Amino acid sequence: MKKLIALALALAPVSVFAQQITDANSLTTKITNIGNTVVVLLISFSVIYIIFNVVRYLIADSEDGRKKGGLSILWGVVGLFVILSIWGLVAILTNTFSTNNNVPREKFPTVIPPPAF
After folding, report:
1. Does the reported pTM lie above 0.85?
2. Structure confidence at residue 33 as a pLDDT band (50, 70, 90)
3. CA-based max dimension of the chain
4. Nearest 10 degrees: Cα torsion 96, 100, 101, 103
5. How far is CA 31 from CA 17, 63, 106, in A?
6. In sequence order, what are the residues at sequence separation of 6 or more whose Cβ sits closer than 8 angstroms to the Cβ of residue 77?
7. How far from 34 is each of 6, 17, 24, 79, 81, CA to CA, in Å?
8. What is the rounded CA–CA span in Å between residue 65 and residue 103?
9. Are the C-beta atoms of 99 and 66 separated by less than 8 Å?
10. Where are the domains of the chain?
């Protein structure tokens, strides 16, 4: 029963978000917003991880502890670089292929209906 209550509480925001999705554009907007939030969280966690390992490196007493802390800092920086590189690559591809679907109305031909009798 406790697991069911926890699951219902965890999925409560999903049911609220589902009511706002009316077409494909709102779905892609929602997914993009979730993706941007995930990227910001990943960047934040990687920076916190790097800072935590710098502190561990400075506090370490033994040579083995410093070596382990140094490698952890290195992998944190590599992870941060990968996250930012992928984020930048997606932005470059989006801007290159002009995936903006906001086409002005004057680009489309219009048909004027005949007057009603």
Report:
1. no
2. confident
3. 95
4. -90
5. 11, 46, 29
6. 50
7. 22, 11, 15, 20, 21
8. 58
9. no
10. 49-96
Q: 103: helix, coil or strand?
A: coil
List, for residues 108-117, the tens digit of each pLDDT value: 777 777 787 7
Averaged pLDDT, 1-14: 74
Confidence of residue 98 (pLDDT cuts 50, 70, 90): low
Instruction: Look at residue 29 in the predicted model and tell me its pLDDT.
Output: 76
| Structure tokens that stand for 34 in this block | 């979730």
Rounded-to-integer distance, Cα 9 and Cα 27, Å: 23
Q: Give the whole-angstrom CA distance, residue 30 versus residue 27.
A: 5
Other C-beta atoms within 10 Å of 34: how many?
Answer: 11
Cα distances from 2 to residues 5, 9, 13, 32, in angstroms, run 5, 11, 19, 33
Condensed to tens digits (0 to 9), the pLDDT of residues 41-52 reads 999 999 999 999
